[in-house]
Structures are given as C-alpha cells and as structure tokens.
Amino acid sequence: MSAINRKTGQTGQTGQTGPRIVIVGGGIGGLVLAGMLHRHGVAATLYERDAGLDAHAPGGSLDLHPESGQRALDELELTAGFQAEARPEGEDLRILDRAGKLLGRRAPEPGDGTRPEIDRGSLRGLLLSKVPDCTIRWGRHVTGVEPLPAGGHRLTFADGAQSDWDVLVGADGGRSRVRPLLTGARPVHLSACLQLTITEADLRRPRISRFVGPGSLMALGDNLNLGAQRSGDGTIRVSVTVRTDDGWIGRQRFDNGDWTGTVARLHDMFAGWDPELTALIDACDPGSLIARNIEALPVGTRWSSHPDVTLLGDAAHLMPPVGEGANQAMLDGVLLARAIAEHAGDPGAAIAAYETEMFERTAEIGAGSAQMEQLGLAPDAAERMAAIFG
Ligand SMILES: Cc1cc2nc3c(=O)[nH]c(=O)nc-3n(C[C@H](O)[C@H](O)[C@H](O)COP(=O)(O)OP(=O)(O)OC[C@H]3O[C@@H](n4cnc5c(N)ncnc54)[C@H](O)[C@@H]3O)c2cc1C
Fold this sequence. Notes:
By secondary structure, the chain is of the alpha/beta class. It has 13 helices and 17 strands. It folds into two domains: 217 residues, FAD/NAD(P)-binding domain, CATH 3.50.50.60; 107 residues, D-Amino Acid Oxidase, Chain A, domain 2 (2-Layer Sandwich). Helix content is 34%, strand content 22%. The strands form four sheets. It has a seven-stranded mixed β-sheet, sandwiched between helices. The N terminus is likely disordered. Bound molecules: flavin-adenine dinucleotide.
C-alpha cells in the first residue's frame, strides 16, 4: 500500500520498501519512537498538531529514571546531552505538613542521585535532534482515523486532506483520537491541578526562592497538595492539587483577568495553613494560572492486538502524574521501534510482541501510580509521604 495524500494526490516517501508507518503525536513518546525507528533504519512519518516545539509554554521539570527515561536517552546516544542539561540537585525533595513542619527530606549527596531532573522543553529539544527533518510534519492536526477494508488506516486532517497508511501508532496523549480504534476504555477523572509560575524567582522573589531550595517541596493536608518546584530556567512552578469532581474547575471561576479574586480564592482553600507556605500563592505571576483536570485510564487497560495499529505513552496507559508517565512513554518508544526492526515485514508480530511486554509493565506501574495518587491526597498524606521519601 502506498501513502496517498488525497488532496495533493502525492505518494509518501519514495523508494521506501516495507510497511508505511505513521505516528500521530510528537510528544515525548512519539519523538522517541521516531528517533529510534530512524536509528534502526526504518522510515516513518510523524504528524504533530502543534506548529513547532515552541507552540506552548514547555511545562515543568521531569525526573528521568535509569531503567526507562535514561535508558531511552542512552539508546538514542543522548546521554551526554542529557547530562549537560540535567539538574541532579533537582532531586532534593522536602515534605511538609500544613503547619509548615518539615516531616521528611530526600536530599541525595552530589553524585549519589539516580533520577536527575530535566526541563520538559529541553528534553523535547534533545529528542527532536534525533528525528530527521523529513520525518516530522508540524501543524498537522489529525481529526479523523478510519480503518480501510483491506487493512491500514486513513487519516483525515483539519484542513480536509487525507492520507492512507499501513501501520498507525497513536502517540497522541491522554485524549487520544487513535485509542477508540482499539478499546472503549476512557480516562476517569481524579482531581484538579492548578499550575502557576514564579518567573526569575532568584531575582524577583529571593526569599521564596530560598524557601523552595534547589529542588521541590510538597505540603500536604486537608486533601490538598501544595507543591513548588524549581526549573532550570530560574522559574519556580507552584501547583495546587485538589480532590474534586470534574466540574469543579468551571465552578471556581478562576479568572486570570481578575487576579485579586483568583488569589483570594486560592487563599480560601489554604485557610489556616502556615503563612510561609501560602506566601507561595502571593509570589505567583499575575495571570499565570492554568487549571487542568487530572485523569487516568483504568489500571490494566488492554486490548486484543491488531496487526496495523497500536498506542504508546499516555494514549495507551494514561496514569496519574506521580513521576512515571513520561518515563514509560519513552521506554514504549524504544521497545516498539525495536520490535518493528526485529520483525521487519511483519508489523502484526511486532505490535503483538510490543504490546505483550507493554501491558504487563505498565499495569504494574499504573497500579503503583494509582496507589501513590491516593496516598498523596489522603488525610494523613504528609506523614505517609514522609515515611516513603523522608
Ligand atoms: C502536571 C503534570 C506533571 C507531570 N509530571 C511528570 C513527571 O514528573 N514525570 C513523568 O514521567 N511524567 C510526568 N507527567 C506525565 C507526562 O507528562 C506524560 O506521561 C507524558 O507527557 C506522555 O507523553 P506522550 O508522548 O504519551 O503524550 P504527550 O506528551 O501528551 O504528547 C502527545 C502529543 O500528541 C499531539 N497530539 C495530540 N492529539 C493530536 C492529533 N489529533 N493530531 C496530531 N497531534 C496530536 C500533542 O500535541 C502532543 O504533542 C506529568 C503530567 C502532568 C499533567
């Protein structure tokens, strides 16, 4: 089968033998897959809806684990680049209660830490450096996916163009458009997360900067989590996580245009908390609040293998954000690329082998992440987290 653009009538990569592979989504997992397929000499095309890497604020810091995220960087020969960008001191974590009492601290000695932090934007930049320019098509929003009678899938784009592909990989995140081809599983609402920023913290908010320290802090109580984390660009990211129903954000009327009202509502949530903690709220940049619902797929979501479509990353196993999602998406990318290379000419066998391992691995990690999420918003969260991390 050839990849035919229904609008332009042009075929895809000329001279290519083997199945035509398309990846939808150029997030962390999609970029690893594209880079690893290139390393294995397998051609693929990646469609990303954003216009480029800088289309959005890059988001916070991620800690990469040796057996997953760091392994992917190693396989992509990006370890030196990672070490240049990573912040080992970012592993410093303090757990406090609502009274500001320090209950636990994880502070690895220099050289002892295993999970250095890296800014999400820096990570995506590194991964993109391993993806050939001709592979990635920016600003291509896939709005429809449809199976073809003889196998393969037809993609439809926001501008009405269409193209047909032999093998489709959904790397399109938690709200995946590809997922319904394989499973009826849907993400379940868990909580709301309010994210705010303090830019140029050392310069503009030196007291707050010293209070947050080189890594992050978490203050827990009243089924709330108030977090602060330093990024490599000198920004401190403040987060508020609260157990809610999925309509809560809409009812709160958080409005960046009414900053005084928004700050007052945030203070109401933390009434009675230590003033040094609530000072974090006052230090945030006016207008910086982004509110999002946190969701997860049911733990152990799986499907019967199809020979021409699969998923990776959040599309396959959206988990609560407790430090595994990006790491597992990166490992998925490595292992799917390897399976495709090893089963050259038989994508069905490659997908079945990849999914067998991926389902088992991510079911276990998803269960652990779900437990951690429960614990993080439990009434005695501070004590229990301190017992784990202290
Ligand atoms: C607040 C928060 C904190 C987190 N902290 C951590 C952490 O510390 N450590 C960790 O490991 N994980 C963390 N995670 C989870 C991590 O961000 C995700 O698991 C990871 O980004 C998943 O990568 P992905 O490539 O599967 O999906 P994404 O990063 O969501 O990428 C999907 C890509 O697909 C594109 N796309 C979507 N739909 C379409 C379409 N229709 N057409 C074309 N393109 C499309 C999107 O634009 C996007 O670029 C956190 C998540 C949140 C929300």
